[in-house]
Amino acid sequence: MQRQMNALEWLMLAALSILWGGSFLFNGILVQAWPPLTILLAALVLGEELELRHLFGLLLVAAGLAAIDGRLWRRLRPARP
Q: So what's the pLDDT on residue 81?
């Protein structure tokens, strides 16, 4: 049996979509405007609680970016004669 959604349910769905989608939109804008480390430090200064797993995730992302960039590997590798 299928039931039709009434106007209130459609309104609640639209409000949920705006609230949930808005957070992704603003996070995307924030990451483009500020470097992720700045966002992390601001969250720590403002008292946001980050679990240890979040910090490990940040380190994993930083290590991946360093590997992709290659500058860190060039410094660690001895120069060729």
A: 65
